[in-house]
């Protein structure tokens, strides 16, 4: 019989000395440290004091019997996790069920077979060691998670503060550049005018990046109540925001005559459209031709989409598009890589999903889905994932 590496403590609770003597001798030779109690009350006291790794507990004892001792030990936090193996001559199923209902880990039937006892003890001690390891790992994971949450909150606060504080001096740079352009437009050399134009454009791009960072930071902690959307009104605001950009790219945008009703948060949905249509203008054909539309899905969702006439995107880059700071095309320096990640975060917060696919002929379709009613909008995140897919129209 090979001794175990580390001595673990067993407690035998039995009022029959002959049983105790045989078990004590056998388990000691097996490499365990063995404690003995002659009745239920002494067994409870010993367990509370010594905290053994496992208890062998006789059922039929005078005074406090095994069932009562087990019930008490399992009710106390300091002894509740100690596995208890009942030793009994009782074969009635009712007694066994009662023991298990009180928290017993196993049964050994008298007369005791020592090899069986050793096998059961070994099994339950191993289970207890694994349970302790799991508990310790869960505790470490919880502490690590809490630490990460604190750091994330600090990082969000820092990023928000930095982004907010950058806006004021940046506005001054842009404003002063505009004044110089207007006041000295005639007297400045052409090269200097171009330099000012680059400064102004760079300032506007930096402002957009800061606004995107601030919005991204708010998304992680801001909770909103969704409402029925007047999508026509939302898109009208988008058209006003993109008016000069559309004029710059000489694009054609075709909107639907009617909009389907969905639930969302108007300000956030406006940002989705601005990003999708803005990207379509920048990355489409020359000139851009863009179609905007919506379809009802079979799963209680509305699919809103933007189709462009640009080059087909490779399927392997689809997921990368919605990763922060990933550009649509490296040849377009104006793509600062935050827009599509914001679209994904917004849509998921509103209970939908985002995606992209190639369309027949030439072009790509970027889409997002929103719930058709408030019930779907208020569902938990795990349930939303089950029903949000809109592959079947």
Q: Could you characterize the architecture of this molecule?
A:
It is a single chain. The chain has 393 residues and is of the alpha/beta class. Helix content is 51%, strand content 15%. It has 12 helices and 12 strands. It has helices at residues 17-29, 40-50, 66-75, 93-101, 114-183, 190-219, 231-241, 243-249, 266-283, 339-349, 374-377, 381-387; strands at residues 9-13, 33-37, 54-58, 84-88, 106-109, 227-228, 252-254, 263-264, 289-296, 301-307, 354-358, 364-371. The strands form 3 sheets. Strands 2-1-3-4-5 form a 5-stranded parallel sheet, sandwiched between helices.
Keywords:
12 helices, 12 strands, Rossmann fold, Heat Shock Protein 90, alpha/beta, five-stranded mixed sheet, 51% helix, Helix Hairpins, five-stranded parallel sheet, 393 residues
Which secondary-structure class do the elements indicate? alpha/beta
CATH class of the largest domain: Alpha Beta
CATH superfamily of the largest domain: Histidine kinase-like ATPase, C-terminal domain
Radius of gyration: 35 Å
Distance N to C terminus: 69 Å
Largest sheet at a glance? 5 strands, parallel
pLDDT < 50 runs, ≥5 residues: 328-336, 381-388
Which range best describes the helical content: under 10%, 10-25%, 25-40%, 40-55%, 55-70% or over 70%?
40-55%
The CATH level-2 architecture of the largest domain is identified as: 2-Layer Sandwich
The figure for the number of domains is 3
Tally of helical segments: 12
Strand tally, please? 12
Q: What is the chain-wise order of helices and strands?
A: EHEHEHEHEHHEHHEEHEEHEEHH
Give me the CATH fold name of the largest domain.
Heat Shock Protein 90
What is the overall shape? elongated
Q: What's the pLDDT, averaged over the residues?
A: 83
Identify the strand order in the major beta sheet: 2-1-3-4-5
Q: What proportion of the residues form beta strands (DSSP E)?
A: 15-25%
């Amino acid at each position: 019989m090979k001794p175990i590496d580390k001595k673990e403590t067993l407690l035998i609770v039995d009022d029959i000395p002959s049983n105790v003597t045989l078990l004590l001798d056998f388990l000691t030779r097996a490499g365990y440290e063995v404690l003995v109690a002659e009745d239920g009350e002494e067994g409870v006291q010993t367990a509370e004091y010594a905290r053994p790794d496992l208890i062998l507990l006789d059922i039929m004892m005078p005074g406090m019997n095994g069932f009562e001792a087990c019930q008490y030990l399992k009710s106390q936090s300091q002894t509740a996790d100690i596995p208890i193996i009942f030793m009994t001559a009782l074969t009635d199923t009712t007694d066994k069920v009662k023991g298990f209902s009180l928290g017993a880990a196993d049964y050994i039937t008298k007369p005791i077979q020592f090899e069986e006892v050793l096998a059961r003890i070994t099994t339950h001690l191993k289970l207890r060691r694994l349970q302790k390891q799991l508990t310790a790992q869960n505790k470490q994971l919880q502490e690590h998670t809490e630490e990460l949450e604190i750091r994330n909150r600090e990082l969000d606060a820092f990023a928000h503060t930095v982004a907010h504080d950058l806006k004021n001096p940046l506005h001054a740079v842009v404003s002063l550049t505009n004044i110089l352009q207007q006041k000295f437009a005639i007297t400045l050399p052409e090269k200097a005018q171009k330099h000012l134009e680059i400064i102004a454009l760079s300032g506007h791009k930096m402002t957009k990046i800061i606004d995107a960072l601030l919005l991204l930071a708010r998304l992680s902690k801001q909770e909103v109540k969704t409402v029925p959307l007047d999508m026509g009104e939302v898109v009208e605001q988008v058209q006003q925001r993109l008016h000069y950009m559309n004029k710059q790219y000489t694009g054609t945008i075709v909107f639907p005559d009617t909009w389907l009703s969905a639930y969302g948060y108007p300000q956030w949905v406006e940002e989705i459209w601005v990003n999708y249509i803005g990207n379509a203008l920048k990355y489409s054909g020359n000139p851009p031709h863009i179609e905007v539309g919506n379809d009802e899905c079979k799963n209680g969702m509305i699919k809103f989409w933007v189709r462009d006439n640009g080059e087909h995107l490779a399927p392997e880059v689809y997921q990368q598009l919605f990763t922060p700071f990933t550009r649509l095309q490296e040849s377009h320096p104006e793509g600062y890589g935050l827009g599509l990640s914001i679209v994904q975060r917004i849509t998921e917060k509103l209970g939908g999903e985002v995606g992209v696919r190639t369309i027949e002929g030439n072009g790509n379709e970027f889409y997002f889905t929103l719930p058709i009613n408030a019930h779907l909008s208020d569902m938990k995140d795990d349930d939303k994932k089950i029903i949000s897919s809109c592959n079947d129209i």
